Amino acid sequence: MTYKVAALYQFVALPDFRELKDPLHKLCLDLGIKGTLLLAHEGINGTVAGLDGAIDTLMAELRDGPLFGGRLDNLELKFSAASEMPFGRMKVRLKKEIVTLGDPQVDPTRRVGTYVSPAEWNTLLEEPGIVLLDTRNDFEVEMGTFDGAIDPRIKRFNEFKDFVRTELDPKQHRKVAMFCTGGIRCEKASAYMLAQGFEEVFHLKGGILKYLEDVPEARSRWNGECFVFDERVALGHGLVERSGEAGEQADD
User: Fold this and answer.
1) Exactly one of 28, 180, 186, 226 is catalytic; which is it?
2) Is-catalytic flag, 180?
3) I need a labelling partner for 29 at 20 to 30 A (CA). Which of 50, 100, 130, 218 fits?
4) Could you give the angle at the alpha carbon of 243 between the alpha carbons of 55 and 29, nearest 5°?
5) Averaged in consecutive runs of 10 residues, what is the pLDDT profile of the chain (252 residues)?
């Protein structure tokens, strides 16, 4: 049996996020879906898996159903497949942030960097003076990254602020491109860097997963595998699953 895996997020004002927890959890359980969804005042983030029809029903409910009232109309969504159910149970968790940067002044719903599609990403990387940042944690970078990318060597995403403050200079590093697994960390990272005075900040729309899905391996600038926080552990080009030991589900 093959399971459909949906990785999703959207930054959007959800002042009622606490009230959404129980009905969202029940909806997933009724559909036989497992995984983790995070809710916060700033939006939704998570990865879930289930049978094709169940996942399709859940996505339709999130986008158009009464629970969110049409607020998830710009949901960033990527699908992949798993030969076995990659999650043990269904969790809906309430958080202060759907991805933890730890700076309350950063608001991705107001201003983020310039999105770059996977089709345009290779061209951007060839531009002179571009600074390419991998915003993921160090163990993720070890499994794979883009040619020429800087590894900030962070253990958790909230350490990214320290890296920018000590290693980068808006006057010197005028054009920055960044990427992460699915795009969510770059939303916050780009918003933070723009607030710090960096002039041009670009980020890969849909993240590494969308790049591996859309860009043929023959034209790819990606080396290695992409770590994912479920029992598949890593995905390669075409979002083909790789075997290994399971990672712990995390939001940062």
Assistant:
1) 180
2) yes
3) 100
4) 25
5) 93 97 98 98 96 98 97 93 93 96 90 96 96 95 94 96 96 96 94 95 95 94 83 65 46 47
